[in-house]
Protein backbone atom coordinates (compact mmCIF):
# COMPACT_ATOMS: atom_id res chain seq x y z
CA UNK A 1 0.00 0.00 0.00
CA UNK A 2 1.29 3.44 -0.93
CA UNK A 3 1.70 5.71 2.12
CA UNK A 4 -0.42 8.83 2.16
CA UNK A 5 1.10 11.66 0.16
CA UNK A 6 1.02 15.16 1.53
CA UNK A 7 0.08 18.25 -0.42
CA UNK A 8 3.47 19.90 0.11
CA UNK A 9 5.23 17.06 -1.70
CA UNK A 10 2.84 17.37 -4.63
CA UNK A 11 3.30 21.15 -4.84
CA UNK A 12 7.09 20.70 -4.86
CA UNK A 13 6.87 17.97 -7.51
CA UNK A 14 4.67 20.18 -9.68
CA UNK A 15 7.07 23.11 -9.34
CA UNK A 16 10.08 20.99 -10.30
CA UNK A 17 8.24 19.98 -13.47
CA UNK A 18 7.25 23.57 -14.29
CA UNK A 19 10.71 24.96 -13.50
CA UNK A 20 12.66 22.21 -15.25
CA UNK A 21 15.17 21.76 -12.44
CA UNK A 22 15.39 21.26 -8.69
CA UNK A 23 17.51 24.37 -8.17
CA UNK A 24 15.04 26.65 -10.01
CA UNK A 25 12.11 25.09 -8.17
CA UNK A 26 13.87 25.71 -4.85
CA UNK A 27 14.37 29.40 -5.68
CA UNK A 28 10.74 29.86 -6.78
CA UNK A 29 9.42 28.09 -3.70
CA UNK A 30 11.76 29.89 -1.31
CA UNK A 31 13.27 26.61 -0.15
CA UNK A 32 16.81 25.25 -0.05
CA UNK A 33 17.87 22.89 -2.81
CA UNK A 34 18.50 20.03 -0.32
CA UNK A 35 14.94 20.48 1.06
CA UNK A 36 13.46 20.12 -2.42
CA UNK A 37 15.69 17.13 -3.20
CA UNK A 38 14.64 15.46 0.05
CA UNK A 39 10.93 16.05 -0.67
CA UNK A 40 11.28 14.50 -4.14
CA UNK A 41 13.27 11.56 -2.75
CA UNK A 42 10.60 10.94 -0.08
CA UNK A 43 7.86 11.10 -2.72
CA UNK A 44 9.78 8.61 -4.91
CA UNK A 45 10.16 6.33 -1.90
CA UNK A 46 6.44 6.56 -1.19
CA UNK A 47 5.56 5.85 -4.84
CA UNK A 48 8.04 3.04 -5.28
CA UNK A 49 9.44 4.37 -8.57
CA UNK A 50 11.77 7.10 -9.78
CA UNK A 51 10.28 10.42 -10.80
CA UNK A 52 13.47 12.09 -12.06
CA UNK A 53 16.78 10.93 -13.43
CA UNK A 54 19.78 13.08 -12.67
CA UNK A 55 22.41 13.43 -15.38
CA UNK A 56 25.08 15.86 -16.52
CA UNK A 57 22.45 18.01 -18.23
CA UNK A 58 20.15 18.40 -15.21
CA UNK A 59 16.97 16.63 -14.14
CA UNK A 60 14.91 14.56 -16.54
CA UNK A 61 11.38 13.23 -15.89
CA UNK A 62 10.83 9.52 -16.11
CA UNK A 63 7.96 8.17 -18.22
CA UNK A 64 6.14 7.28 -14.99
CA UNK A 65 6.56 10.86 -13.74
CA UNK A 66 4.94 12.21 -16.90
CA UNK A 67 1.84 10.10 -16.27
CA UNK A 68 1.92 10.87 -12.54
CA UNK A 69 2.15 14.62 -13.24
CA UNK A 70 -1.24 14.58 -15.02
CA UNK A 71 -2.88 13.23 -11.87
CA UNK A 72 -0.97 15.70 -9.69
CA UNK A 73 -2.22 18.61 -11.81
CA UNK A 74 -5.80 17.48 -11.22
CA UNK A 75 -5.20 17.08 -7.47
CA UNK A 76 -3.51 20.50 -7.18
CA UNK A 77 -6.38 22.12 -9.07
CA UNK A 78 -8.88 20.39 -6.77
CA UNK A 79 -6.93 21.52 -3.69
CA UNK A 80 -6.85 25.10 -4.96
CA UNK A 81 -10.60 24.96 -5.59
CA UNK A 82 -11.07 23.53 -2.11
CA UNK A 83 -9.04 26.36 -0.60
CA UNK A 84 -11.14 28.92 -2.50
CA UNK A 85 -14.34 27.21 -1.34
CA UNK A 86 -13.13 27.20 2.27
CA UNK A 87 -12.28 30.91 2.01
CA UNK A 88 -15.70 31.69 0.52
CA UNK A 89 -17.44 29.64 3.21
CA UNK A 90 -15.38 31.36 5.89
CA UNK A 91 -16.47 34.79 4.67
CA UNK A 92 -20.06 33.78 3.86
CA UNK A 93 -19.77 34.21 0.10
CA UNK A 94 -21.14 30.86 -1.07
CA UNK A 95 -24.09 28.59 -0.32
CA UNK A 96 -27.88 28.80 -0.39
CA UNK A 97 -30.05 31.18 1.62
CA UNK A 98 -33.54 30.13 2.68
CA UNK A 99 -35.47 33.30 3.52
CA UNK A 100 -39.08 33.74 4.61
CA UNK A 101 -40.68 37.16 4.23
CA UNK A 102 -43.99 38.69 5.26
CA UNK A 103 -46.09 39.99 2.32
CA UNK A 104 -45.82 43.63 3.39
CA UNK A 105 -42.06 43.76 2.76
CA UNK A 106 -41.96 41.32 -0.15
CA UNK A 107 -41.45 44.16 -2.65
CA UNK A 108 -38.29 45.61 -1.14
CA UNK A 109 -36.66 42.42 0.20
CA UNK A 110 -35.88 41.03 -3.30
CA UNK A 111 -34.03 44.25 -4.14
CA UNK A 112 -31.88 43.94 -1.03
CA UNK A 113 -31.25 40.24 -1.71
CA UNK A 114 -30.36 40.98 -5.34
CA UNK A 115 -27.73 43.52 -4.31
CA UNK A 116 -26.22 40.95 -1.94
CA UNK A 117 -26.17 38.32 -4.71
CA UNK A 118 -24.49 40.70 -7.15
CA UNK A 119 -21.71 41.16 -4.60
CA UNK A 120 -21.61 37.41 -3.90
CA UNK A 121 -22.28 35.69 -7.26
CA UNK A 122 -21.88 32.14 -5.87
CA UNK A 123 -24.85 32.58 -3.54
CA UNK A 124 -28.16 30.89 -4.37
CA UNK A 125 -31.48 32.09 -2.96
CA UNK A 126 -34.87 30.75 -1.96
CA UNK A 127 -37.18 33.65 -1.04
CA UNK A 128 -40.70 32.66 -0.01
CA UNK A 129 -43.60 34.86 1.08
CA UNK A 130 -45.82 33.71 3.94
CA UNK A 131 -47.78 35.33 6.77
CA UNK A 132 -45.55 36.43 9.65
CA UNK A 133 -46.73 33.66 12.01
CA UNK A 134 -45.80 30.99 9.47
CA UNK A 135 -42.38 32.55 8.88
CA UNK A 136 -41.79 32.66 12.65
CA UNK A 137 -42.63 28.96 12.98
CA UNK A 138 -40.39 27.92 10.10
CA UNK A 139 -37.44 30.02 11.27
CA UNK A 140 -37.77 28.58 14.80
CA UNK A 141 -37.87 25.06 13.32
CA UNK A 142 -34.82 25.72 11.15
CA UNK A 143 -36.66 25.47 7.81
CA UNK A 144 -35.78 29.10 7.02
CA UNK A 145 -32.34 30.55 7.75
CA UNK A 146 -33.80 33.96 8.37
CA UNK A 147 -37.18 35.69 8.41
CA UNK A 148 -38.60 39.18 7.93
CA UNK A 149 -41.85 39.53 9.86
CA UNK A 150 -44.12 41.79 11.83
CA UNK A 151 -42.39 42.05 15.18
CA UNK A 152 -43.31 38.97 17.24
CA UNK A 153 -43.80 38.87 20.98
CA UNK A 154 -40.62 37.86 22.78
CA UNK A 155 -39.93 34.22 21.93
CA UNK A 156 -37.24 32.02 23.46
CA UNK A 157 -36.62 30.20 20.19
CA UNK A 158 -36.00 33.35 18.11
CA UNK A 159 -33.33 36.01 17.97
CA UNK A 160 -35.18 39.25 17.16
CA UNK A 161 -33.83 42.47 15.61
CA UNK A 162 -36.73 44.99 15.69
CA UNK A 163 -37.37 48.04 13.48
CA UNK A 164 -40.07 50.70 13.63
CA UNK A 165 -41.65 52.57 10.72
CA UNK A 166 -43.78 55.66 11.25
CA UNK A 167 -47.11 55.27 9.50
CA UNK A 168 -48.32 57.74 6.90
CA UNK A 169 -51.90 58.73 6.13
CA UNK A 170 -53.00 57.95 2.57
CA UNK A 171 -55.65 60.31 1.16
CA UNK A 172 -57.76 60.05 -1.98
CA UNK A 173 -56.80 62.56 -4.65
CA UNK A 174 -59.96 64.67 -4.17
CA UNK A 175 -59.80 64.76 -0.35
CA UNK A 176 -60.54 68.08 1.34
CA UNK A 177 -57.64 67.26 3.70
CA UNK A 178 -55.11 67.35 0.87
CA UNK A 179 -54.05 70.93 1.70
CA UNK A 180 -53.03 69.99 5.23
CA UNK A 181 -49.34 69.39 5.92
CA UNK A 182 -50.15 66.63 8.41
CA UNK A 183 -53.22 64.60 9.31
CA UNK A 184 -54.42 64.08 12.88
CA UNK A 185 -56.79 61.55 14.41
CA UNK A 186 -59.38 64.36 14.72
CA UNK A 187 -59.19 64.93 10.95
CA UNK A 188 -60.26 61.32 10.39
CA UNK A 189 -63.23 61.50 12.78
CA UNK A 190 -66.09 59.76 10.94
CA UNK A 191 -64.15 59.57 7.66
CA UNK A 192 -64.35 56.31 5.66
CA UNK A 193 -61.34 54.24 6.75
CA UNK A 194 -59.58 51.23 5.26
CA UNK A 195 -57.74 49.07 7.81
CA UNK A 196 -55.87 45.79 7.99
CA UNK A 197 -58.34 44.05 10.27
CA UNK A 198 -59.08 44.38 13.99
CA UNK A 199 -56.16 42.18 15.09
CA UNK A 200 -53.49 44.08 13.18
CA UNK A 201 -51.09 46.12 15.30
CA UNK A 202 -51.75 49.37 13.38
CA UNK A 203 -55.53 48.98 13.59
CA UNK A 204 -55.35 48.38 17.34
CA UNK A 205 -53.26 51.54 17.75
CA UNK A 206 -55.69 53.50 15.58
CA UNK A 207 -58.71 52.28 17.58
CA UNK A 208 -56.98 53.20 20.83
CA UNK A 209 -56.23 56.70 19.53
CA UNK A 210 -59.82 57.17 18.32
CA UNK A 211 -61.14 56.13 21.73
CA UNK A 212 -58.79 58.40 23.66
CA UNK A 213 -59.57 61.40 21.43
CA UNK A 214 -63.32 60.67 21.35
CA UNK A 215 -63.32 60.18 17.57
CA UNK A 216 -65.47 57.82 15.49
CA UNK A 217 -63.46 55.20 13.58
CA UNK A 218 -65.62 54.53 10.53
CA UNK A 219 -64.17 51.39 8.93
CA UNK A 220 -65.69 50.79 5.50
CA UNK A 221 -63.18 48.22 4.20
CA UNK A 222 -60.69 45.72 5.60
CA UNK A 223 -57.83 44.04 3.78
CA UNK A 224 -54.83 41.88 4.67
CA UNK A 225 -52.12 43.89 2.91
CA UNK A 226 -51.02 47.52 2.80
CA UNK A 227 -50.73 47.51 -1.03
CA UNK A 228 -54.40 46.48 -1.23
CA UNK A 229 -55.33 49.30 1.15
CA UNK A 230 -53.35 51.72 -1.03
CA UNK A 231 -55.20 50.51 -4.12
CA UNK A 232 -58.54 51.14 -2.40
CA UNK A 233 -57.44 54.64 -1.41
CA UNK A 234 -56.34 55.19 -5.01
CA UNK A 235 -59.87 54.28 -6.11
CA UNK A 236 -61.35 56.81 -3.69
CA UNK A 237 -62.87 54.30 -1.25
CA UNK A 238 -61.46 56.02 1.83
CA UNK A 239 -58.40 56.83 3.95
CA UNK A 240 -55.76 54.46 5.31
CA UNK A 241 -52.65 54.38 7.44
CA UNK A 242 -49.85 53.00 5.28
CA UNK A 243 -46.32 51.94 6.09
CA UNK A 244 -43.68 54.09 4.33
CA UNK A 245 -42.16 51.15 2.42
CA UNK A 246 -45.47 50.36 0.72
CA UNK A 247 -46.07 54.08 0.17
CA UNK A 248 -42.67 54.47 -1.47
CA UNK A 249 -43.12 51.45 -3.75
CA UNK A 250 -46.75 52.23 -4.67
CA UNK A 251 -45.84 55.84 -5.41
CA UNK A 252 -43.62 54.64 -8.27
CA UNK A 253 -46.70 53.40 -10.17
CA UNK A 254 -47.85 55.57 -13.08
CA UNK A 255 -51.50 55.24 -12.02
CA UNK A 256 -50.93 56.29 -8.41
CA UNK A 257 -52.96 59.35 -7.39
CA UNK A 258 -52.74 58.81 -3.63
CA UNK A 259 -51.72 61.76 -1.47
CA UNK A 260 -49.48 60.95 1.50
CA UNK A 261 -49.16 62.99 4.69
CA UNK A 262 -47.53 62.47 8.11
CA UNK A 263 -49.97 61.23 10.74
CA UNK A 264 -50.31 62.38 14.35
CA UNK A 265 -50.34 61.13 17.05
CA UNK A 266 -47.64 58.73 15.96
CA UNK A 267 -48.66 55.21 14.90
CA UNK A 268 -45.75 52.83 14.41
CA UNK A 269 -45.49 49.67 12.35
CA UNK A 270 -43.03 47.27 14.00
CA UNK A 271 -41.21 44.65 11.97
CA UNK A 272 -38.24 42.44 12.73
CA UNK A 273 -35.46 40.39 11.23
CA UNK A 274 -35.51 37.02 12.99
CA UNK A 275 -33.00 34.18 13.29
CA UNK A 276 -33.32 30.77 14.95
CA UNK A 277 -31.82 30.68 18.42
CA UNK A 278 -31.46 26.91 18.76
CA UNK A 279 -30.35 25.95 15.23
CA UNK A 280 -26.94 26.46 13.67
CA UNK A 281 -26.70 29.55 11.47
CA UNK A 282 -24.31 29.40 8.49
CA UNK A 283 -21.62 32.01 7.95
CA UNK A 284 -23.47 32.92 4.76
CA UNK A 285 -26.62 33.67 6.77
CA UNK A 286 -24.59 35.68 9.30
CA UNK A 287 -23.06 37.67 6.44
CA UNK A 288 -26.46 38.27 4.84
CA UNK A 289 -28.23 39.26 8.06
CA UNK A 290 -25.53 41.88 8.75
CA UNK A 291 -25.99 43.27 5.24
CA UNK A 292 -29.79 43.15 5.65
CA UNK A 293 -29.71 44.96 8.99
CA UNK A 294 -27.45 47.62 7.49
CA UNK A 295 -29.96 48.07 4.65
CA UNK A 296 -32.85 48.29 7.13
CA UNK A 297 -30.98 50.83 9.27
CA UNK A 298 -30.44 52.96 6.17
CA UNK A 299 -34.06 52.49 5.06
CA UNK A 300 -35.52 53.53 8.42
CA UNK A 301 -33.21 56.54 8.56
CA UNK A 302 -34.06 57.64 4.99
CA UNK A 303 -37.82 57.25 5.54
CA UNK A 304 -37.71 59.13 8.85
CA UNK A 305 -35.81 62.13 7.45
TrEMBL record:
<feature type="domain" description="HTH lysR-type">
    <location>
        <begin position="5"/>
        <end position="62"/>
    </location>
</feature>
<keyword id="KW-0804">Transcription</keyword>
<keyword id="KW-0238">DNA-binding</keyword>
<dbReference type="Pfam" id="PF00126">
    <property type="entry name" value="HTH_1"/>
</dbReference>
<comment type="similarity">
    <text>Belongs to the LysR transcriptional regulatory family.</text>
</comment>
<keyword id="KW-0805">Transcription regulation</keyword>
<dbReference type="InterPro" id="IPR036390">
    <property type="entry name" value="WH_DNA-bd_sf"/>
</dbReference>
<dbReference type="Pfam" id="PF03466">
    <property type="entry name" value="LysR_substrate"/>
</dbReference>
<protein>
    <submittedName>
        <fullName>LysR substrate-binding domain-containing protein</fullName>
    </submittedName>
</protein>
<dbReference type="InterPro" id="IPR000847">
    <property type="entry name" value="LysR_HTH_N"/>
</dbReference>
<dbReference type="InterPro" id="IPR036388">
    <property type="entry name" value="WH-like_DNA-bd_sf"/>
</dbReference>
<dbReference type="InterPro" id="IPR005119">
    <property type="entry name" value="LysR_subst-bd"/>
</dbReference>
Amino acid sequence: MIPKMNAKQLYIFQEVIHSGSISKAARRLGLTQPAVSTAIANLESDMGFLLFKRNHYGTEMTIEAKSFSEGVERVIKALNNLEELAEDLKHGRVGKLQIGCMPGLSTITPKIAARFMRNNPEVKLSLQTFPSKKVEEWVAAGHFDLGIVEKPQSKNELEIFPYKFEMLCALPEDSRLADKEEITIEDLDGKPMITLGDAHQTTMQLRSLASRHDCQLNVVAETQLFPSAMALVNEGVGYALIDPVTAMEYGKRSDSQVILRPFLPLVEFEVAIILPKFHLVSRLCQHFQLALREEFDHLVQSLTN
